[in-house]
């Protein structure tokens, strides 16, 4: 049980997909970025999203927790369900949705507050724990991401003196602290050194015991290492989605074959 369970809205099914996407089209203004996409992401799985730059990976990912809602010109048709609840449902507060479906970006974005306060920022905002527990929660989450030894003696310091990799681990700790059901990660390791990348990959594998993850990656080897399923977006379409081994070793579509063989950007 994580700290957020008491606040979860809707019914959490014991098994089956967490996220169902059907007939999804998204775009900006008169341009469709992605048309008629259908995919689902199973409970406690790691799911890679691959495809050339500009194919709509970030737009798709950000649609899953309504992060694009306020972006000018953005539109969406079709349905995204989280545990059977339409995420566009008026009764689902977007802030609650984003607590349940967290996000980690390519560039680490610590808040301008202490390391400790960063970790518990969401816990505080959602009033998920009494003040006296915040220190323990910060420690627990920093340990979980492997950052504790490096920051234990400077929890009150600014995060901006940490290395890029450490900042990204801090952002992961912050995302995990609110106990999300789903974590969206947009190229989370593309700005990191190989050692931190390995740490993050190992962490994601461990998190799959309790979380569903959707990870955008440019690194095909990484998708193969960490993902249960892989989804390939290309040219405005979700071309193919399936078990990672199938998508890489026996893709159904020629475009997928071309991309995973490295013949297309
Ligand atoms: N805020 C926006 N306004 C208009 N067009 C956008 C916006 N964000 C992204 N796009 C366009 O949507 C398409 C997909 O972008 P994106 O989702 O960022 O692709 P990817 O993450 O796969 O590189 C691109 O053509 C991009 O120019
Ligand atoms: Mg992107």
Please give a quick description of this structure.
This protein is of the alpha/beta class and 265 residues long.
Can you tell me the CATH class? Alpha Beta
Strand portion: 25-35%
Q: In what order do the strands lie side by side in the largest sheet?
A: 6-7-8-3-9-10
Gross morphology is globular
Spell out the CATH superfamily: P-loop containing nucleotide triphosphate hydrolases
End-to-end gap: 42 Å
What's the helix count? 11
How does CATH name the architecture?
3-Layer(aba) Sandwich
Q: Which fold does the CATH topology refer to?
A: Rossmann fold
Alpha carbon gyration radius: 18 Å
- Write the H/E string, N to C: EEEHEEHEHHHHHEHEHEEHH
Q: Please, how many domains?
A: 1
Structural class: alpha/beta
Characterize the largest beta sheet: strand count, sense, and whether it forms a barrel.
6 strands, mixed
Q: Give the distinct bound molecules.
A: adenosine-5'-diphosphate, magnesium ion
The number of distinct β-strands equals: 10
Mean pLDDT: 93
What does this structure look like?
Helices cover 33% and strands 25% of the residues. The chain starts with 16 loop residues before the first strand and ends in a 5-residue tail after the last helix. With 265 residues, it is of the alpha/beta class. The protein has helices at 57-63, 94-100, 115-119, 121-125, 134-144, 148-151, 164-177, 194-207, 220-226, 244-249, 254-260; strands at residues 17-28, 31-42, 46-50, 74-82, 85-86, 101-104, 182-186, 212-216, 229-234, 237-243. The model is unreliable at 1-13 (pLDDT under 50). The protein has a single domain, classed as P-loop containing nucleotide triphosphate hydrolases (Rossmann fold, 3-Layer(aba) Sandwich), CATH 3.40.50.300. A hairpin with a 2-residue loop joins strand 4 (74-82) and strand 5 (85-86). Helix 5 (134-144) crosses helix 7 (164-177). It has a six-stranded mixed sheet, sandwiched between helices. Strands 2-1-4-5 form a four-stranded antiparallel sheet, covered by helices on one side. The chain has eleven helices and ten strands. The longest helix has 14 residues, at 164-177. It is globular.
């Amino acid at each position: 049980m994580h700290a957020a369970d008491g606040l979860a809205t809707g019914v959490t099914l014991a098994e089956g997909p967490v996220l169902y996407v059907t007939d999804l089209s998204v775009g900006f203004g008169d341009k469709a970025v992605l048309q008629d996409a259908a995919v689902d992401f199973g409970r406690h799985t790691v799911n890679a999203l691959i495809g050339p730059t500009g194919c709509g990976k970030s737009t798709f990912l950000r649609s899953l927790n309504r992060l694009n809602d306020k972006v000018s010109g953005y539109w969406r048709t079709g349905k995204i369900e989280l545990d059977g609840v339409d995420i566009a449902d008026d009764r689902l507060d977007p802030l609650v949705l984003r607590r349940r479906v967290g996000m980690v970006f390519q560039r680490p974005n610590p808040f301008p507050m202490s390391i400790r306060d960063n970790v518990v920022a969401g816990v505080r905002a959602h009033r998920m724990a009494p003040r006296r527990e915040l220190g323990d929660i910060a420690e627990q989450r920093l340990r979980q991401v492997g950052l504790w030894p490096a920051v234990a003696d400077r929890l009150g310091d600014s995060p901006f003196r940490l290395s890029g990799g450490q900042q990204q681990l801090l952002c992961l700790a912050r995302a995990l602290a609110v106990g999300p059901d789903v974590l969206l990660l947009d190229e989370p390791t593309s700005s990191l050194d190989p050692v931190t990348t390995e740490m993050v990959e190992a962490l994601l594998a461990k998190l799959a015991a309790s979380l569903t993850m959707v990870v955008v990656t440019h690194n095909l080897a990484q998708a193969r290492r960490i993902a249960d399923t892989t989804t390939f977006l290309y040219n405005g379409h979700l071309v193919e989605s399936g078990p990672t081994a199938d998508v890489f070793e026996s893709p159904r579509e020629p475009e997928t074959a071309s991309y995973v063989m490295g013949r297309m950007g």
